[in-house]
User: Fold these one by one.
Assistant:
Number 1:
Amino acid sequence: MIQIKKILFPTRFSHRSKWSIAYSLQLAKKYKAELHLLHAQVLWDDDPHNPAYHFSDKKELQTRLLNAAKDQMSTDLEKSDIQDIEIKQVYERGMTPSETILKYAAENSIDLIVMDAHRKQGVRLLLGSILDEVVRSAPCAVLAIHQKENAEPKFALYSSQDIL
């Protein structure tokens, strides 16, 4: 039986993330787990090989993005019942969201990653490019949540063994 002590919820603050964060909070409460809310800040300026994406004032942009992420995460949490849940709000920089998520999960001994999923035309309930990479390489189980407009979300639990 899997022991869930640390749950990671990476967020881009999309409209779909509202269902996923609620489900993450329910899981954290049920298992008395620590919930890590991660926003991966990806700036193209970090890629020294791509001069087309360089920004003139990188520090100011990073500060504005970080403040916006903090404000949005606080807004998302204030509408939820977070009593008795240990929550860590984390803002990490990285080259890609999936790389940042995987690195954080490995370094923090995460037991479960909860992520949004969406359907692509003609493909079953699976996998956006970020979710695909996380499922394939995660050091733990990944719970993918798919939600349509005005419908209850659907859940699918994956581990890297399912994909290999």
Number 2:
Amino acid sequence: MEKLKIAVVGLGNRGQLFAEYVLGSSDAALVAIADCSASARGKAQNEYKLTPQSCYESADDFFAQEKCADAVFICTQDSDHKAHTIKAMQLGYDVCLEKPIATTMQDCEDIYAAQQATGRKVMICHVLRYSHFYGKLRQIIKSGEIGEVVTISQTENVAYWHDAHSYVRGVWSNVEKSSPMILAKCCHDLDILFWLFGKRCKSVSSFGGLYYFKKENAPKGATSYCVDCDSDTRKDCPYDAFKIYNDIYKTYNPILGNATVFRTSRKDYIDNMLSKKPNVYGKCVFACDNNVVDHQVVNMLFEDDRTAQLTMTAFSKDCHRNIKIHGTLGEIKGDMEENKIYVYPFRADDHVIDLTELADDFSVHGGGDKLLFEDFIAYLRGNESSETRTTLKDSLLSHKMSFAAEYSRLHGGIPVKIEE
């Protein structure tokens, strides 16, 4: 069978991940990439063996050419998703689109309208559905072991260091420049609640705000850039950029971009980068232009009066998700990073499911990204739909929930109905 031709638009962390899945696939071939970064294009040529002519300097340059692939992974910034996805479909490409779909509900609906008009296949990267953890939870729920699920509580522990990087210093720090955090970070979580229930969400209310990462909370002696702080201030500050990027991001460093060879040591390279001004990643977290929330709760009413609650918090030591599911005949709890699920049936003995005994690959969202990639290839081949497949139509609901939650938060927590 002839390999499917795949292009990747946006060769950042996510784009590189999917490009490497394509390279390792017997069913697909990487034929083009587009990215504004010269180092990203260099990596595509040196490591992915693409020709310079197949490495475009922008999405616009790529889309200006004749169609060269069967499908495209769109991994550009959130605000660019609408233009890039609609253009791709109009040119005849099927699309795997990074979440969120877009930064406004109207843009999401415009993309859906374009899909209906073009008839192209579009899948959204809600990878949690594909993780071994959430897949097993859904299997237990469907088995009836804990009866009918009545309520679910999910917590998204963002981690103080990850929040500082992405949502205080980084590209998702400002709503006007990106999108609300409940959309950018948690549309995953809202989608998984909808998927586990198998019921439609009818109404949401939400509270939260920017509590801590503000100038009035800066420690004594703090300056605008970490490099200018005295040693005592930096020693006591968990958000010191040098500490975060040298000590916490050990295997992957998000500020290195595509740099793979250092003329000096890795630490010297990072220290030199953070010492240069202006560099937002070396800036004090209490002196940025961030305005997204650092904590938020969302209360949800689903069909049949079932309820769910989501907590998103920046204030955790580690980056992980945990969940508690209450049914009429039992309950379940688990932490995605632990890879164990604890089941407490009312009529039987408690038991623990060790996911490491059932699967081998837990890399990237608990193994979810690789399985999503494989399902997208199956989707392109016309194979029967999997129950995990996150089509554009299905994903609109979690986005409606996200935008409704943000509206509620901004209006004192009022309940907001989710329209059909």
Number 3:
Amino acid sequence: MRIAIVEDDPVQAALLKLWLVEEAFDCHLFEDGEKAIKALQKDSYDLILLDWYLPKFNGAEVLAWIRDNLDWKIPVIFVTQRDCEDDLAYALEHGADDYVTKPLKPVVLKARIHALLRRVRGVQKNTNNSQKFDRFRFDTQSNQLYVDDAPVTLTQKEFELALFMFRNSGRLLSRSHLLESVWGHSADLNTRTLDTHISRLRKKLNLGEDTGWRLSSIYHHGYRLESVTG
């Protein structure tokens, strides 16, 4: 899970990262609004922790850019000292998903993050360790994928990549996001490894208009898996 932390106080940013790494999140720090926007133009994240007072572009301006320019409603939590009701209302009315005031309590912050991720993504219904996406059924206990109940032979990483992309269908996922999420944060890999796995999945799963799912390459960014039915 990738989290972008937009916080100009280096001590506070380091503390946030320390807390969230304990939850196995991959954290990326940005010290001002301009750097955060530049990163969001080429990379993808699962959630953003956004301070209100920032150099160059403040938190409200960064939030406005996110809601106007990103094609997926990435969850945003404001983390700030502002705590009056008008500020809370402003943040929520302009697209924030939650609001946490400083000084922060790690237990509360972690709980709010997990609750928001569950709410935004929806709690997926699993039956006997199985997750189903139309014709595609993933058995997460045996790491076996079935298409129309017929087993498909995949390597371990192909299975993990396919499951991650189906769980995030409709999202534009950057290459670094996919590499971190499937191969691990410290994986010493280049994008050719990912591109090769993507090519294999297209062929093995026969992804295309005829099968109801399209796996698109987005130039200079990454990949998007989306349903084309209905």
